[in-house]
Amino acid sequence: MSAERDIKFTAADFRRLRQMLYQRVGIALNDSKSHMAYSRLVKRVRQLGMRQFSDYLDLLDSNVDEEEWQHFVNALTTNLTAFFREPHHFDLLRLHALERAGQDRVYRVWSAAVSTGEEAYSIAITLLSLPQLNRKRLELVASDIDTRVLSHAADGIYDADRAKALDEAQLKRFFLRGVGRNAGKIRVRRDVRDQLSFYQFNLIAAQWPDMGRFDVIFCRNVLIYFDKPTQAAILQHFATCLQPDGLLFLGHSENIQHLCDAFQSCGRTAYRLVNPAVRG
């Protein structure tokens, strides 16, 4: 490890940190992530007055501070997102929703790794733009393991330059522009924010709560952080959470065809449920 580091961080510390993160949230850091782990956690270690990472890891292992565990997870999870990222998914979402617009039931969508919220609000904008879809028959759920980004998502406040994928009509209908000291900011309108429910959720939890069945699940650029057995387990959970013929959207570098036979490809990183799982 670098001799310039003022906080001692050994190869053994990194191995231990990796194992702790994997056991807690299923994320498998590879060997190249040592510097990233150090840089994201070192400020917290300093704040606690510690001179070596092993003391911080001992604190976590003592299991006396759940809030500290959440800080640890928040620091080491990656949150890269944007409005209408991978726009072909939203085209498929629009078609899928229109096909079901006449059904006498609620249309349900889950953003399972919502990060700072851009994905969830892109879903909301897509569906609320459809006159055929009754707002009262629309349920949008968003979750993440990281409590910090969930708070950001629920607030719905963004720098205006993050909205480049939105046209002027969307900005006018779904956002408020900041003025004065909030100039350069935009905020999702309250009626749109109220359409969403935000929850903390750990995708590797042994038992998932019964959330009912969704028509669509977004879980993009998340599975890449898990090993193959964990990926397969999450996919089986998703299969129990989808309506027959429901859609699952994944990230551009994720391929599940050899992990789970419940889904069939129906577009670029888009999958349709063809073999519904039976609830236990």
Automatic annotation (TrEMBL):
Domain CheR-type methyltransferase positions = 2-276
Give the reaction(s) catalysed: L-glutamyl-[protein] + S-adenosyl-L-methionine = [protein]-L-glutamate 5-O-methyl ester + S-adenosyl-L-homocysteine
Record protein name field: Chemotaxis protein methyltransferase
Which one of the record's GO molecular function terms can you name? Answer: protein-glutamate O-methyltransferase activity
Q: Which PANTHER family match?
A: CHEMOTAXIS PROTEIN METHYLTRANSFERASE
Give the main EC class.
transferase
Q: Which residues make up the binding site for S-adenosyl-L-methionine?
A: 79, 81, 85, 119, 144, 202-203, 220-221
- Mind listing the GO biological process terms from this record? methylation
